[in-house]
Amino acid sequence: MLLLLFGLLLAMAFSAWTAWSFRHLDHLGLYHDDAIYLTGAKSLVETGEYRMPSLPGDRFQTKFPPLYPILLSIAWQLAGDVPANLPAMMLVSWLAIPLLAGVSWLWLRRCGLGIGWTSALCAAIVFNPTILLMGTSLMTDVWFAALAIASIWLSDRAPENRSLAFLAGLLAGLAFLTRSAGIVFVASGPLFFLMRKQWRSSLAFLLAMIPCVAGWMTWCAQHKIQSSEYVFLYYLDYFALYKVSVSVPELPHLLYMNLWTWILGVGRLLFFNLHDSGPLYFLTNLAGLAAGAGLIRRLRQGIGAISHYDLFALFYVATLLIYMYPPNQRFSIPLLPLLMAGLWLELRYLGRLVRSQEPSIGMSADAADRSVRATVVAGVVPVVMLACSLQAAAEFVPASMEGSAIQSRGKQQLYDWVRSNTPVSARFYAFDDPTFYLHTGRQAISMHVPSPISRREDRNERVNYFRGLDQFADRLHLDYVVFGPYEFTRDLTDPERKTVIADLTANPTWILRYSQSNWSVYQRTPTRTDPGPSTRNLDPGGAVNAVLK
User: Fold this and answer.
1) Phi, psi angles (nearest 5°) of residue 481
2) Which has the closest alpha carbon to 432: 5, 31, 12?
3) Where are the alpha helices (DSSP H) in 159-278?
4) Structural domains present in the chain
5) Of the candidates 151, 418, 540, 203, which has an alpha carbon nearest to the alpha carbon of residue 307?
6) Using one digit for the tens of pLDDT, what is the confidence trace for 527-543?
7) pLDDT per residue over 458-478, tens digit each?
8) 3-class DSSP state for residue 482?
9) What is the CB-side half-sphere exposure of residue 447 using CA atoms within 13 A?
């Protein structure tokens, strides 16, 4: 047991060392959203308003809830301006990891696991490469998981304690203000208490959570963007984006695709693996299925009543299945302790099966075969899982962040040129637009493939979408276009992106102003009259249906 406790402390120390090593956040922009959160914090510090200043028009932020940017803005104010405040922001992000480990410990102990097993599973959570990546980047995933599990743990303790139920509801509200996926607590929390005939606790939970939900939804309604341009819906309005991205006839196909993506994502969260074939791919899927089987076994065997975590997982996964984008392993982080517990239970069951059915001379061939397979699963899976996680934590995680940092340093000359040679009011097309804004102070935007086009998997349709960049730039009054070695890499193959860039740059109205180190800046000759600073907040008309059809 002491060895396992030491392993947990070692995992925590390793995550702290990783955060310290990358405390200057040179890898900012690795996930795109991380830079968006920082622009929100910048707006709060400089103007006191929650906006997305990187977008043309300096628009109000109505997509990402404000709690995490508020935390970053506090660190910004306490630690001074960039870059002196970046280590403080890294600290804000990393603190979610020990918090997640702590609430996971409490929940696993409440499930009946001993200190040794709890230490081992919490160490596995802290060492998890996905947790390390999210917790050492300016992302909300680990914070949301920690707040959600804290609320769940308090709920499980509070069926007859209205004060604890109120506190659980407050934590659920804070989770919602971290990620809007926390809306599922509005259903799971009250239902958990009502199943135990504790309607007062159910009401207390709702009374604590509803102000958080109502406050954010009121803000979004009051500052709703009045535009049909798809890219603005992508950045600023979840619900409007969903309406134009998902139709009722598409739902069966969407459910099927998201279910398979989610199962694979669960396996990759438990068993870190980037390969789509081979033995590791098989073990990845096996780990995900084993975790699910363990959770089902837990409920069928009546190991405790249905917990709030079970209900939360049910509603949460239901939202993932109808989500407009594929739910990869990031989306299952809030379920990680539950999945770990399910995997542990299934491996324990298989271990007992091995001990009770060890191959012997008198055993039938089928029984011996089952015993051998159980031995492989119970023994090989956890060992290979641990080896893959440790290797990824030690190699893949720092390599990913260092690779992003190298890319960022390679763009410094570009940023310097933009700051020195373009007016502050200039608008840009740039692949990593919020990062570009943070380094240059120039508003920028990029194109994002609409999810219906992604689901249709028509390569020509994707290529033609990006060929429309000039018309896109006209609608949004963009003055410059920045091309680099990573342009369109999220959506196009290398030959496709080269073809698109060649076609676009052949436009005689595009004038090359800068070319160095694989980066080029083109100035566009506008086909409209510049609206000027006084009308910069006006929304351009946009034919979103034309993009999606």
Assistant:
1) -125, 130
2) 31
3) 162-176, 185-194, 199-222, 230-236, 238-245, 251-270
4) 411-548 (3.40.50)
5) 151
6) 544 444 333 443 443 43
7) 888 999 999 999 999 999 999
8) strand
9) 27
